């Protein structure tokens, strides 16, 4: 009699984890270059004593396999900030953090006190030689070509490094719109960079709200089934107890 409860609980646990993913998507709906995520599920079968019979069956549980990232490009928004760079198409900026190289598409950059180009967390943005990009104090007119070449009133400075990977799904989100991976980065020879624009999150809040509502309804439906099953078991125990005492 407990099999029904176990199967229902596996469904509830999966729905709870799915709700966490949807809630995280909604919380990052305004995070630049954030990529929405979605849970992947599969049927997990467990043999029973009747599995070897001709009409025997197996118990079917719900198992969450992994999280699938939506790698589609988010909408580009004009900011007119000369240090905002949007990547159009494949690619990631290379960022040097205290934990090593990380990768991201959030191109909201700024200059620190030393004139170095850094991201919003203060980590250095790498150039094509894997070196930080530093501007002289008298360089105020910063221009970036579509291929990532950086120039000022004093001439060419360097070129932004843009890399790609064989499998974007294998990249691990480490927060702040940055990713880590064990894959070897491959330089994008012809990147498309738009200066003065930002890539927004590709999360659609209305869609995520609809998903959340459906998840809550499914969760409540499973809970109602568990309550009914519990009542059925109590009635069965009471009936058996009365039959033995009669």
Automatic annotation (TrEMBL):
<feature type="domain" description="Flagellar hook protein FlgE/F/G-like D1">
    <location>
        <begin position="86"/>
        <end position="151"/>
    </location>
</feature>
<dbReference type="Pfam" id="PF00460">
    <property type="entry name" value="Flg_bb_rod"/>
</dbReference>
<dbReference type="InterPro" id="IPR020013">
    <property type="entry name" value="Flagellar_FlgE/F/G"/>
</dbReference>
<dbReference type="Pfam" id="PF06429">
    <property type="entry name" value="Flg_bbr_C"/>
</dbReference>
<dbReference type="InterPro" id="IPR012836">
    <property type="entry name" value="FlgF"/>
</dbReference>
<dbReference type="InterPro" id="IPR053967">
    <property type="entry name" value="LlgE_F_G-like_D1"/>
</dbReference>
<dbReference type="InterPro" id="IPR010930">
    <property type="entry name" value="Flg_bb/hook_C_dom"/>
</dbReference>
<dbReference type="GO" id="GO:0030694">
    <property type="term" value="C:bacterial-type flagellum basal body, rod"/>
</dbReference>
<keyword id="KW-0975">Bacterial flagellum</keyword>
<feature type="domain" description="Flagellar basal-body/hook protein C-terminal">
    <location>
        <begin position="194"/>
        <end position="237"/>
    </location>
</feature>
<comment type="subunit">
    <text>The basal body constitutes a major portion of the flagellar organelle and consists of five rings (E,L,P,S, and M) mounted on a central rod. The rod consists of about 26 subunits of FlgG in the distal portion, and FlgB, FlgC and FlgF are thought to build up the proximal portion of the rod with about 6 subunits each.</text>
</comment>
<dbReference type="InterPro" id="IPR037925">
    <property type="entry name" value="FlgE/F/G-like"/>
</dbReference>
<dbReference type="Pfam" id="PF22692">
    <property type="entry name" value="LlgE_F_G_D1"/>
</dbReference>
<dbReference type="InterPro" id="IPR019776">
    <property type="entry name" value="Flagellar_basal_body_rod_CS"/>
</dbReference>
<keyword id="KW-0966">Cell projection</keyword>
<keyword id="KW-0969">Cilium</keyword>
<keyword id="KW-0282">Flagellum</keyword>
<feature type="domain" description="Flagellar basal body rod protein N-terminal">
    <location>
        <begin position="6"/>
        <end position="35"/>
    </location>
</feature>
<protein>
    <recommendedName>
        <fullName>Flagellar basal-body rod protein FlgF</fullName>
    </recommendedName>
</protein>
<dbReference type="GO" id="GO:0071978">
    <property type="term" value="P:bacterial-type flagellum-dependent swarming motility"/>
</dbReference>
<dbReference type="InterPro" id="IPR001444">
    <property type="entry name" value="Flag_bb_rod_N"/>
</dbReference>
<comment type="similarity">
    <text>Belongs to the flagella basal body rod proteins family.</text>
</comment>
């Amino acid at each position: 009699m407990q099999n029904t409860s176990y199967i229902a609980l596996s469904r509830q646990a999966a729905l709870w984890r799915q709700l966490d993913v949807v809630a995280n998507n909604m919380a990052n709906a305004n995070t630049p270059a954030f990529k929405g995520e979605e849970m992947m599920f599969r049927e997990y079968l467990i043999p029973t004593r009747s599995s070897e019979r001709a009409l025997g069956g197996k118990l079917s549980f719900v198992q969450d396999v992994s999280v699938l990232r939506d790698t589609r490009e988010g909408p580009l928004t004009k900011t007119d900030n000369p240090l905002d760079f949007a990547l159009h198409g494949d690619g990631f900026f290379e960022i040097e953090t205290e934990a090593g190289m990380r990768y991201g598409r959030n191109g909201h950059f700024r200059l620190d006190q030393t004139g170095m180009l850094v991201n919003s967390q203060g980590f250095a943005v790498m150039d094509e030689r894997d070196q930080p990009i530093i501007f002289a104090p008298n360089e105020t007119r910063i221009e970036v070509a579509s291929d990532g070449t950086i120039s000022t009133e004093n001439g060419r400075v360097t070129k932004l490094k843009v890399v790609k990977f064989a499998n974007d799904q294998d990249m691990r989100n480490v927060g702040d719109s940055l990713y880590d991976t064990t894959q070897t980065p491959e330089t994008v020879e012809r990147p498309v960079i738009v200066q003065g624009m930002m890539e927004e999150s590709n999360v659609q809040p209305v869609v995520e709200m609809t998903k959340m509502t459906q998840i809550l309804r499914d969760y409540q439906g499973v809970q109602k089934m568990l309550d009914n099953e519990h009542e059925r078991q109590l009635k069965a125990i009471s009936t058996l107890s009365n039959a033995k005492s009669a």
